[in-house]
Structures are given as C-alpha cells and as structure tokens.
C-alpha cells in the first residue's frame, strides 16, 4: 500500500511541476508573439523566459543551490560551457545567468508546438548533421558575441548515458569559437538536474535538489587551435570535479506495485 501512495504522490508531483512550467508560457504567449517580430524587442522576450524559469523552479518547491566561484563578468561577452543531463538544464541556466543571454540548441527544438518557432528566432538552432547548418549556427554565434551577448553551449552535444557521472567527449566547435572571438569560457557544472527530470521515455519528475556551479572564467586571448586539446581537458576536468555520488544513476520512476530500480549507467 505504501508503494501505491508513493506512486500516486510522484504522479501528482509530476502533474504539478508540468502545470507550473506550462502556465507562464500560455499566459505570456501573446506577448512573446509580438516581441519575437523585431530583433530589438527580443531581449524583452528573453526576460520573460528568465522570469518564467524563476517562477517554475520556485513553485516546484525544490532546493536550488547556485555556486559562483568567480565574480560575474560585467559588460563582456563570454561562453558558458555546461554539461548536459536533462531538459531542465536550459531552464536552470536561463534562471541563473543575467542579461540577454543566447543559447545554441538542436534544431529539433524549433519543431516544438508554439514555442519552437519563437526559440528559432530568439536563439540559435543548429543542425549538427549538416555542414551548412553548422556553418550558419557558427556565424550567428559569432555575431551574437560581437554584439556583446553571452552564449550558452553544451559541448557534449547531447545528453549522455551517464549524466552527472561521466562526460561525453567534447566537440571542438565551442572551443574554436571561443578562441576565434577571444572571449572567456565559463565552465558550468550541472550535477543533479537529471535527478529531477531524467531523460527517459515518459514524463517523470521527482522532487530533487538542483545545483549549478559557475567556475572561474578561463581566458582564451592569445590561444590558437593547437591549444584546443589542453583547453578542452581543463574545462572537462573543472565540470567533472563537481560531480557528486548522489548524482549517479538515472531514476526511472515508480509503478503502483513498487519502485523501479534506477537505470544502471551504461558502461
């Protein structure tokens, strides 16, 4: 009987968390449709997304720990490089990072109903399977940095099989972009978001702590492409340094009969 009530509790919490996520979008959707029409207005659209993220994480009732190891960069573009463990990663980054930040995400996000076209015009979709798509996204990213707009990238490119435990190999593109533009890199560790919302079939949300660690900026001025392997290794080491034992394993939820075991990491 206890397993049944725990299952019902998880289902109810998933419903509540979903409601608290979609409500701000539908309330602000008319304003977003207006603001997306002009590039000069899109910073206000991003502000809506920022407060949307704050509203959702607050109403979820979960503890959110944010660690800033260095002072925030003032009036200077930079590239935030974060590990990717959950769809909630974007929400947490939008919540924490001030200003009109940009983000590069899979072009499949553009296909989402209602919000997808808005994402495609406000941020940078990328088709990594197409050389033309990668080139277009890189050009947009360079222009964004020239305009002073910080940029979020996930150098793994996708959610790996061992989120919060082991990193996927980093792609070179983020580091090539940082060196070409001379902007600093800020590594970001997200060790627990997959515990709140794992990337598994079916929508499952658990009441779990969220944590983000923003590391010291790493300067890239004067570096060349020959420095990419060492730079990549340094960023990977800093991100992985904040992985914690409670971040291991992928929760897969409950049935009314009992707890399903956590999905073992693929080795």
Architecture overview:
This protein has 267 residues and is of the alpha/beta class. It has one domain (62-250): Glycerol-3-phosphate (1)-acyltransferase (3-Layer(aba) Sandwich), CATH 3.40.1130. Helix content is 42%, strand content 13%. It has eight helices and nine strands. The protein has helices spanning 2-35, 42-59, 88-96, 115-122, 131-146, 173-181, 193-196, 228-240; strands at residues 64-68, 79-82, 102-106, 124-126, 151-153, 185-189, 210-214, 254-255, 258-259. The protein has a seven-stranded mixed beta sheet with strand order 1-7-6-2-5-3-4, sandwiched between helices. Helix 4 (115-122) links the parallel strand 3 (102-106) and strand 4 (124-126). Helix 2 packs across helix 3 (88-96). It starts with a helix and ends in an 8-residue tail after the last strand. The model is unreliable at 255-259 (pLDDT under 50).
Distance between the termini: 35 Å
Using the coordinates shown, work out and report the CATH topology. Answer: Glycerol-3-phosphate (1)-acyltransferase
Give the full name of the CATH homologous superfamily: Glycerol-3-phosphate (1)-acyltransferase
Integer tally of domains: 1
Question: Which term fits the overall shape?
Answer: globular
Strands of the widest sheet, in order across it, are 1-7-6-2-5-3-4
Determine the fraction of residues in helical runs and give it as a percent range. 40-55%
Structural class of the helix and strand makeup? Answer: alpha/beta
Instruction: Identify the quaternary structure here.
Output: single chain
Number of helices: 8
The CATH class turns out to be Alpha Beta
Q: Say how many strands there are.
A: 9
How much β-strand is present in the residues?
5-15%
The pLDDT mean sits at 90
InterPro entries: Plipid/glycerol_acylTrfase (IPR002123)
Pathway: Lipid metabolism
Transmembrane segments: 12-36
GO biological process, one term: phosphatidic acid biosynthetic process
């Amino acid at each position: 009987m206890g397993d049944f009530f725990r299952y019902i509790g998880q289902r109810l919490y998933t419903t509540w968390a979903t409601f608290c996520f979609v409500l701000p979008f539908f309330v602000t959707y008319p304003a977003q449709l207006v603001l997306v029409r002009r590039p000069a207005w899109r910073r206000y659209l991003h502000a809506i997304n920022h407060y949307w993220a704050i509203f959702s994480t607050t109403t979820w009732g979960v503890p959110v720990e944010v660690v800033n190891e260095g002072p925030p960069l003032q009036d200077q573009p930079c590239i935030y490089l974060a590990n990717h463990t959950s769809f909630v990663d974007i929400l947490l980054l939008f919540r924490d990072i001030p200003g009109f930040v940009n983000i590069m995400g899979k072009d499949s996000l553009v296909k989402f109903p209602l919000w997808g076209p808005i994402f495609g015009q406000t941020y940078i979709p990328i088709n990594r399977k197409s050389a033309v798509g990668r080139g277009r996204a890189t050009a947009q990213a360079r222009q964004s940095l020239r305009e002073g707009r910080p940029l979020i990238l996930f150098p793994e490119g996708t959610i790996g099989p061992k989120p919060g435990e082991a990193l996927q190999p980093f792609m070179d593109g983020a580091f090539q972009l940082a060196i070409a533009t001379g902007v600093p890199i800020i590594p970001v560790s997200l060790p627990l978001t997959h515990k709140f919302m794992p990337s598994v079939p079916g929508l499952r949300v658990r009441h779990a702590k969220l944590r983000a660690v923003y590391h010291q900026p790493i300067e890239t001025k004067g570096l060349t492409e020959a420095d990419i392997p060492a730079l990549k290794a340094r960023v990977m080491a800093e991100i992985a340094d904040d992985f914690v034992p409670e971040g291991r394993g992928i929760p897969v939820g409950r049935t009314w009969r009992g707890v399903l075991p956590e999905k073992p990491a693929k080795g």
